[in-house]
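Re: the request from the purification team.
They wanted to know what the chain is likely to look like in 3D before they choose a buffer screen. I agreed to run a prediction and write the result into the notebook, where they can find it.
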Amino acid sequence: MKGVTIAAIISLFLLSACANMNKAQTGAAGGAAGGALIGQIIGHNTEATLIGAAVGTMLGYIVGNEMDKYDRQQLNHVYERGVSNQRSSWVNPDTGNQYSVTPQPAYQNAQSQRVCRRAEVDAVIDGKRQTTYTTACRDASGQWQLQ
């Protein structure tokens, strides 16, 4: 129960601070909140909650900071129509950032019963290569939502 309280406090603090943040900070805050909750659900202890928050912060920052609307649309297209284990690539015409995404087969999440899909995202941003893994699940309206 203590871990749930910690996760809730972290989540509320980070989400309340989003009003004056840029995309990266908002992404990091949302990622931390989501990661903390997932860590608590999986690990049922404070250590898992803090690890989840750290991982969520990193992923949220990367996605929020570097991906603009065009990139998110391209990523959504890969989740929707991308062939499993086949790389899809694009270059953002405004930023010059390069992305290559390799989606995995869709699966049904045992806990949420939603259809989800993982993907490996390779990005070259400001000449620096970054690799991260994302998961998106369909929401109630059928749209892919990053987890």
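For the purification team: Strands lie at 88-91, 98-103, 107-108, 115-125, 128-138, 144-146.
Please add any questions underneath this entry.
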